[in-house]
Write a structure and sequence with these properties.
4-stranded antiparallel β-sheet, 153 residues, 3-stranded mixed β-sheet, single chain
Length: 153
């Protein structure tokens, strides 16, 4: 990873949640990950009512599937939260993943600075974020998708 590719942690962290017919999927896990990241990176916790804020916003989205993004950015001694929602558009059933190794890069934190991953949004191969190298490498996510491993199917 070249110095220009080192992500800017000061831009904050985010979570992207799936909202299906007004219900948020895996809300507790998303809030737990965001809290862990903000504590580790900034020494700050999101407000205790964050799950309630998310549920209230999700409840007003109506039927169908939506994406909700929650950004948390350090602002002095507090976290500034921003929420954005969009209806989910169909994605192609299959796409090609191109591994992108970011040794010492993102780790488990969903950093708002997506750096080189931003180029994957416009078509073509989708970056598969890999943290580390060799037998210690961990697959984290794709540029705009989760990665699921189905074992024993």
């Amino acid at each position: 990873m070249t110095p220009a590719q080192v992500p800017d942690r000061s831009l904050g962290v985010f979570e992207t949640l799936l909202v299906s017919d007004g219900a948020v999927q895996a809300l507790a896990a998303h809030v737990e990950r965001m809290t862990g990241s903000t504590e580790r990176l900034y020494g700050l916790r999101p407000p205790a009512d964050l799950p309630d804020q998310i549920r209230a916003l999700a409840g007003g989205l109506g039927d169908g599937e939506h994406r909700m993004r929650v950004d948390a950015r350090p602002d002095g001694a507090e976290l500034r939260l921003e929420f954005a929602t969009t209806a989910l558009a169909p994605r192609p059933a299959l796409w090609r993943l191109t591994p992108m190794t970011l040794a010492g890069g993102y780790g488990s934190d969903k950093l708002a600075d997506r750096g080189p991953l931003a180029n994957s949004a416009g078509g073509g191969p989708v970056a598969l974020l890999v943290d580390g190298a060799g037998s210690e490498a961990e697959v984290l996510e794709a540029a705009w998708a989760n990665v699921w491993l189905l074992d024993g199917i």
